[in-house]
Structures are given as structure tokens and as C-alpha cells.
Design a protein that fits this description.
By secondary structure, the protein is of the alpha+beta class. Helix content is 51%, strand content 22%. The protein has a single domain (3-87), classed as Fe-S cluster assembly (FSCA) (GMP Synthetase, Chain A, domain 3, 2-Layer Sandwich). Strands 1-2-3 form a three-stranded mixed sheet.
Amino acid sequence: MLVEPEQLKQPPVIETNREQLIRAVIEEIRPNLQRDGGDCQLVGIEGSKIMVKLTGACVFCKLSSATLEGIQARLVERLGEFVRLIPVAGATNARH
């Protein structure tokens, strides 16, 4: 039974580091988007799904799908695992 609590402690630490890495990648991209009048905010993380909200000029931009693909590719590269970037509408607060 002593092993079980240790196993429960490890996943949150791993998830926290993973979340920090995801946030860092998005923060690297944001200045480029902001220069063009847009932005990208992390909304939530559910396993391999990363939900983001595009705002400003990104909402109606014809290249927004290419932007999302680029962010997804960078996340996959940094995390070393496949993740899916999912654009969502309406949610503005990132989960901490």
C-alpha cells in the first residue's frame, strides 16, 4: 500500500512540467501573432488534446489553420509526443 501514494504523487509533477512546456511554446508564438493584431490563449489540456482560443485578427484570418498547424508541430516536437491542437470559441480563461 505504500507504493500507491507515491504513484499518485508522480503524475501531477509530470503534468505540471508538461503544462509548463505547452505554455512556453504558446508564449513563444504569441508575439508574432500580436504583431499582426491577433493572439492565442491556452484554454485547457485534456490528455493529448490542447485547447486554445484564437483572438483578434486570427479569428477571421484565412491562414489561421496554418498557424494552428505550426503551433501543433512545435508542440509535438518539444513534447516528443503527438498532441492535437483544438481551437475553441468562447472560453477565455486558461485552466491553471
